[in-house]
Write a structure and sequence with these properties.
Helix content: 55-70%
Radius of gyration: 17 Å
Distance between the termini: 31 Å
Number of domains: 2
Largest sheet: none
Length: about 150
Amino acid sequence: MPDRETLERAEEDAREGKSPSTQAGEFVREEIHHIREGKHGARSPQQAIAIGLSEARRAGVKLDPPKGPAAIRNKAAQDTAAGRKAKESMHKESMHKASAKRSRAAEDALKRESSSAASHRALSRQAKQSAVKRGKQSRRQAAMKAARTRRAA
């Protein structure tokens, strides 16, 4: 379950009309903080990002399903459905209770992983790899927009 502050920041982003990926960024940021403070680890920066996006979907952020294997798309659809239910009911009593045994097993598995997945170096490497996949023109546009909006913030 995400922190209350994270939910509030994401809701504020939604009210301001920011994109779903910006709203989801709050959840990814929280996950990176959890790993850095030693709450648990992750195998890679991609796993940390995936956990954050999954939490965002479950909190009701309208993210598109990812490209990739059917298993991943199915998990995203499951998370989106859970997010819809959470938004509709807004009551914890009516939400489906997770299996304690499964939750503990998942948490224990993450605790065995290292925290280096959230290091500045690892995240920088992930960002660069991701940018290269987007292509030269897309990177150029992002850089131009960053230069335009740098002083505005």
